[in-house]
Amino acid sequence: xxxxxxxxxxxSGTISMAEPTxxxxxxxxxxxxALYATPSEPAVNTLPEKIPFFKFSRxxxxxxxxxxxxxxxxxxxxxxxxxxxxxxxxxxxAEEITKLRLKEFEEAIIPFKARIxxxxxxxxxxxxxxxxxxxxLDLKIEQDPxxxxxxxxxxxxxxxENPLVPSSSAELMLEKGEKLYLSMPSGWSxxxxxxxxxxxxxxxxxTGIRGVRFRLGQLTPLRNEQLTLLAEGVLHSTSKRLLFIxxxxxxxxxxxxxxxxxxxxxxxxxxxxxxxxxxxxMTALYGRYVSAVIQLLKTAQCADF
Length: 305
Fold this sequence. Notes:
- The protein is α+β, with helices and mostly antiparallel strands.
- It has 3 domains: 1-42; 49-142, no CATH class; 180-195 and 223-304, PH-domain like (Roll), CATH 2.30.29.
- 33% of the residues lie in helices and 30% in strands.
- The protein has 6 helices and 13 strands.
- The chain has helices at 55-69, 77-89, 95-119, 124-137, 145-157, 284-304; strands at residues 3-7, 14-18, 25-27, 34-36, 180-199, 202-206, 213-217, 220-238, 241-246, 250-254, 258-263, 267-272, 278-281.
- A 7-stranded antiparallel beta sheet has the order 10-9-8-5-13-12-11, with helices on one face.
- The protein is elongated and about 125 Å long.
- The relative contact order is 0.08.
């Protein structure tokens, strides 16, 4: 009696059963789950008869085989076994398979990352895409911290949810009940008035006395406003304030004093109820995050009253 080979869809284990079991319900001896006996599809030989000499050509063949195996959206144990045999035939090391899967993931995520960093949003559909890609290539993905920030911005600005999780604050002297959310490198600047010269007509005449001259006319100092860097350091965003600790000076802006924010490509402006506005120099993404946190916390404060 002929025996047929089945592949368990749950554990990818191989099951050898007698031919009369075809179409019947059987139990997998590996994982003990029930399945219907259907013969495995014969392997498709995608390799040429003559194996290329150059290694990069053999890697291309291995890549093509990987794409064929994961067309169903899953990289199973059976797929890995098939790919391992292909690598062996191509005279490639087993580690080439892991490198190939990582490269496939990196290539697939390039346009995804470009769009994310342009919009600063990681939506629910984006998370589904990452999960599906992780499952497809059987990779555990460590989330990029910047993607996590984009996810928080989306939840705060679009869904009006609070995703903030307190982080360690051992080096900071926080007030009772105050929570630290994020620390980021920053520069602290303010607009200051500076004198850059003088304008006007003036005539200086000698008096005959050494060191004494008459001056006719008037010179007016030229003053203009310039964004002046006051210190470089770290900006801490907490549940009660923005706390900047710099190399020369420190400053604190409580949420109650903040009346608005303005975003620039390299800074975020903090408009206050009194005094000059503070400009914290940072990347656009961090600036967007700081602004979103401030709006979320101030809205929550208003709701409490």
